[in-house]
Each structure stands twice: as structure tokens, then as C-alpha cells.
Amino acid sequence: MYDKEVPGPSAAPLPPFAYSAADEEKRQGVRRMKATATGLLVLVALIYVLATWAERSGVGGWPAYVAAAAEAGMVGALADWFAVTALFKRPMGLPIPHTAIIPTKKDQLGTTLGSFVGENFLSEDVVRTRLRAIGIGSRVGAWLAEPDHADRVTEELSTALRGALTVLRDSDVQAVVGEAITRRADAAEIAPGIGKALENVVADGAHDRAVDLICTRAYAWLVLHVDAVMEAIEGGAPGWTPRFVDRKVGDRVYKELLRFISEMRDEPDHPARGAIDRFLTDFASDLQSDADTRARVERLKSEILGRGEVQDVIASAWASVRTMIISAAEDEQSELRLRVRASLLSLGGRLATDGRLQGKLEGWLEDAAVYVVTTYRGEITSLISDTVAGWDAEHTSKKIEAHIGRDLQFIRINGTVVGALAGLLIYTVSHAVGG
């Protein structure tokens, strides 16, 4: 109704209303109805004058009846003119009590309107009854079950997600993610968990595949790098031994090493494998129960987390996740959007047919709506009263009159007609009774 923001309790009054073309058209209609009602008053006054003149001129019979009707019509018209005018201003500018009701009682009317809305529209019973009658659950379900609607919601969600990720500053998110991961890792002791996991791995024999792989790769490396191995063995021999002896010893050591690794690779019951099993079992137990081992693991964890390279990796994870999410949100055929669409269609189908799910959704919505209206009822009603209080009194009267003034002018017309009929009836009954 106006072109400024609603003021708070301490804000200055709003400037005058901005009248639209529709408001001006309504005001012209009010002026036409005022002219009609005033013209009817002038007409009955003229009829009264003529009827009175005819009666005093000796014309008997009908002039008296017409004069009585016209007189009562004038009284009714004037009385209703006073009542209608008193709503918006002081009749003829006279300081008559209880006139100009809307300008003088504007703030009180705003407070009363706010209280009325709060008591009759923002009560818990009204909100729950209205929401329950709407049947939001089934309506939302039927709407979502339509593929076009699910596509639309998916598109809107994707747009909102992209917008949110665009607004967020990478540096802020990276700092939060890095701090959260580091703090969580520092707070949780990892040794017992690692020990329990290692214990389960050894018990299930899952580590055997790792031993097989290591043995296979070690054997292949020894075969491929025989010269390097021989040089290492010979280089570690004492300087006083002959070279052919060093070569002989190196060759023997190399062959024994190949044999040991191949046997360990091919024999599941090899003693070395058993030694590895016992070592891993003891280490898993120490991780869970040995205080010194657990403390060492925690120190190692802290050292690793404190390294700048690790922190950079943690922080940079957000950039990868963000890029992945934005790419998935933009691609209509991405797994993310396809899954969201399928979930929406499934939810819509269930909501449309599952009364229990409908009841849950409607219960949540009712509770949320009731919480809002009961918690912020005062703010909502004060918005109404403060808004009305900020309106200019004169322009408020003009605005209201433009919207309801035409109907009020019919009151003046009806008052004239009803008054005339009542006056005619009273005069007729009085004349008949008095003879």
C-alpha cells in the first residue's frame, strides 16, 4: 500500500501513500456516488419545499403526505451524511466529539487489528486446524510424483547448491575443514582402533595377500637387479679376502636369498610367514594394551598432522570436493542429479499413498508453524500496529475512503429512501389514528 519499509517502534512516520491508477479510479467513483447521494438530498428538500407550498396554498390531501415523507427523508439523509463523514473527518470542520474517527483513532485501530489477528489467526488451534484441512502431505506427494515437477525441484536444488558454493570463500572453508579434521584426529586415540583392525586382519588371513605380493615383487626385483645385489654383497666383504672368494660368497648369498624368498612366496606354512603372523599379532595386542606403544603411535600421529604438507593436503581436499560437486550439479546426467531426482520421485510416490508418512510430514509442518506463530506472535502483531501507526492520518483516511467510500455513500442514499418511507408511514398512521 505504500512505497517505504515498515517502520519499527522508534522509526519516523512513513511519508504519504503513493496512489495508484486503480486508487484514483476508486476515488472518482466515490465522488460520483457522493454527488448522487447529495443530489438525492437536494431532490427531497425541493420536494419538501414544493409539497409544503402546495399544502399552504390550500391543496388538500396528498401534499401533507409528500411533505412528511420528504421531511423524514431529509432527516435520514443528513443523519447518515453526518455518520459517514464523521468516520473520515470533522463534519463542516466543527470539533464535535467522536468525529474524525479514523484519523484520531488510527493508532488504536492498528493495535486492535494486530490483537485481533494475533488472537484469531495466529493461535495454535487455528494454525493446526487450517494446516490439517489443507492436506499438505498428500498434495506435496502428488506434486512431487510428477516427473516434470521432480525435474524442476532438482534443477532448483542444483542452482541453490551452486550458488551456495559460489558464495562460500574457499579459504574460509579450507580453514574450517582443516581445523575440524585436525581437531577430531587429535581428540581421538587411534592406536586401539588400529590394533583391533590389525588383529581382525591377521585373524582372517587377509594379510597373506600382502605378503604374497611383497615376496613376488622382491623376487622379481632380485632377478632384475642381480648385478646391483652382487656389488652390494661384495662391497661389504673384508678387504683382505680374495676377490674370487668374495664373488663365490656373493653368489652363494644371492642364491640363498632367492631360494628363501621363493619358498616364502610358494609355501603358505613357511616359518617366516609364521614369524610375521606372530609379530603382527603381538603388535596388534601392544597397540591395544601397551601404554608405551600407544603413546608412540600418538606422538607419530601428532607429528604427521603437524607437517605442513599434510595440512596442505587436508585443506586442498575442499577444492577437489567443491569442483566435483559443482560439476555434478551442472550436469543433468550426473549421478548426483539422477539420484536426487529418483529420490524426489520416490518420496513423492510414498507421500501420495502412505498415510503414516503424510501424518509425519504434516505433524512436522504443524509443529514448525505453531512454533513460529507462538514465538513471534508479538513481533507479527506489532508489525501491523507499528505499520498503521507510521501511516499519515490524513492520507490513511483518503486511502480507506477510496476503497470503501462508494459503499458508504449507498448508506446515505438508503438513509434518504428509508427515512422517507418511515416518515410517510408514521404520518399515515398518526393521521389515521388522529382522524
Class by SSE composition:
mainly alpha
Range of helix content? over 70%
Radius of gyration: 47 Å
Overall geometry: rod-shaped
Beta strand count: 0
Overall residue-averaged pLDDT value? 80
Unreliably modeled segments: 1-16
Q: Could you describe the largest sheet, including whether it forms a barrel?
A: none
The number of helical runs is 19
Strand content: under 5%
Reading the helices and strands in chain order gives: HHHHHHHHHHHHHHHHHHH
For the record, give the distance between the C-alpha atoms at the N and C termini, rounded to a whole number: 61 Å
Outline of the structure:
With 435 residues, the protein is mainly alpha-helical. The chain has 19 helices and no strands. Keywords: Membrane, Transmembrane, Transmembrane helix.
Keywords:
435 residues, mainly alpha, 19 helices, 83% helix, membrane, transmembrane
